[in-house]
Structures are given as structure tokens and as C-alpha cells.
Amino acid sequence: MSDIIADLAAIRSDADRWHDYAGQAQAISDDSGKLDINFSNTIINEYIQAYNNFCHTFSSRAAAGNKAMTAMGNAVADVARRLEAADHPK
Amino acid sequence: VSNALDDAVRQLDDAIAQLERAIDDYTRDDWIVIRNLGAQANQKLRDFAQRAEDLANVLHAADPINDRISKWSDVGNKTLALNKDVSGAEEQHKGIHGQEYWEGTSRNHYNAQVTVQQAAIGGLQTAASDVSASLNAMSTGLLSAKHTGEITVVSIAAFVLSVATALTGGTLIGLLGAVASAAGVIVTVNSAVEDLSDAQSKQAKALSGALDKQGDWPQPGVQAFDQDTGWVPAK
Fold first, then answer.
1. Residues B117, A66: contact at Cβ < 8 Å?
2. Would the CB atoms of A41 and B61 count as touching at under 8 Å?
3. CA-CA-CA-CA torsion sign (B219, B223, B227, B229)
């Protein structure tokens, strides 16, 4: 027989975890967004530009990860509230 | 930022100036020969010094690149920690486990989104690792070019000084030959840097392309599981 209290706690724990991961992703985005190289020389300009583009893309993706995992956390917390409010999970 | 090649180029400039003074001060009978050979040598040396200076300038990129290697290592460690957390690989309580306690259609939608997000985090870690490898390869190539350039320029600077203090037609002819050889070395080193740059540029673009192929970080369709039906406690 299932333990509803424990089952809901598992979902709430997921919500906390998603918010934690979202924070980590934002920190990664912030750090990587500062790593472009301001250096100009015709011999290696192509590399520097490609590298800077990579930094920008990487940082943007990590920021999107923050948004995605925040949404996961919010939604799963909402699920826990709904199931609890319904008195018993359906 | 100064480096040993900058110092070597300055030594070379000083040596060239000393040679020019020695040629101007030369008063023996064969002064016309010395002046003619000296003019050729000075032109070659100035060209060589310019190539060496160009190389020294591009090698200044080594400093910011080495700095970014360290910082990307920190970012890589954070992506690794996040990947471990989300998978619960090392610490069970840190992972996502709600789906293990439930069944039903909403739970299944949730589980699918968990998998998608975990994959995106794995992709982030891979990309951080790849850019670190790219920067390391670039740094190694620049360091090699730096060493070769230093040895070549210091060698020519010493040769120029020795010719300035023992100025003859023979030593000037020897100097012309040495400068031609050294210029060839610098051209080769510069070409190696260009080749390296080109290769790394393609690699960096490939990394960006890999991210593009993966697509933007997938935003979850939470409405598929954010409801109070379709969640059934697992038996």
C-alpha cells in the first residue's frame, strides 16, 4: 500500500530540486557570459570571433535552462498542492 | 602584456641600430662594398624584425586564452555538479525521483519532461568540456610558436651584434644568408599559427553548430502534467 504523505513529499522534493538546478544553470549562464575575449589580430580573428559566439550561445542556452527548470519546479509544486487540496490523490 | 618574444624583438631592433651605426662609421678602403652589402642586410633585417613583431603581437592572445582555460574549467565543474545532481548519480536525495512514486498519464508526461531536461544538462556539460579542449589546443599551439620565435629572433640578434663588431664583406654576406633562413622560420611559425587558428575556428564553429543542432534548451510542456488527474500512487 502506498504512503500518500511520502508520495507527495517526493514531488515536493522534486520542486525544490528543480529550483536548485535552475539556480545552478543561471550561475553557469552568468559565468560563461563573461568569458568572451576582447583581442584583435588578423591572424586569429576568425578563431576569436567563433569562440566569442560560442560563449554567447552557451550562456543563452544555460539561461534557457534556468527558465525551463524553474517552470518544471513551479509546475510540480503546483501538482503537489493540487493533489493535497483534493484530499486524496486521484 | 610583455613576453620573451617582445624582449627578443627589442634586442633585435637595438642590434640592427648598432649595425647601422657600424656601417655608417666604416672608413676602410672597401667602404663602398660594405655600404652596399650593409644596405641590403638592413633592409632584410627590417623586414625580418617586422615579421617577428607581427608574430609577437598575435602571441599576446595566449594570455587571455590561458585565463579562459582556467575559467572554463570552473564552468565545466559547475556543469558536472549540476549533471550529477540532476541524475542523482552520487547522492540519491539530490536527484529527481517523484516519478518513481507515481503512475498514470500525468506522471508519464512528467517523466518524459524529466528525461528531456536531464539530456539538456548533459549537453551543456559536453559543450563546456569541448570548448576547454579547443582552448587548450590553441594555447599549446601558441606556446610552441612562441618558443620557436624566441629562439630564432634571439639567435639573429646575437648574429647581428657579432657582425657589427667584426664588420667585413664576408660577415655581411653571412648575415644575409642567416637572415634569409631565419625569415623562413618566422614565416613557417606564422603559417603554423594561421593553420592552428583556422583549425580551431572550425572546431569552435562545430561546437556552436552542435548546440544549434541540439536546438534551444527545450522548454517543458508543463500543462501536460500540471493537473490533479493522471497522478496515481504507485503500488
1. no
2. yes
3. negative
- ipTM exceeds 0.90: yes
pLDDT in tens, A41-82: 888 888 898 889 899 999 999 999 999 999 999 999 999 999
Q: Which chain B residue has its CA at the smallest distance from A10's CA?
A: B98
Contact check, Cβ <8 Å, A79/B85: no
- Across the interface, whether the CB atoms of B211 and A35 are under 8 A apart is answered no
pTM score: 0.85
Q: What is the mean pLDDT of residues B211-219?
A: 77
What grid cell was written down for B180? 634569409
As a whole number of angstroms, the distance between CA B62 and CA A37 comes to 11
Give the Cα separation of B132 and B128 in Å (integer). Answer: 6
Q: Which of A13, A47, A65 sits opposite B197 (nearest CB)?
A: A47
CA dist B226 and B235 (Å) reads 22
Backbone angles phi, psi at A34, to 5 degrees: -105, 10
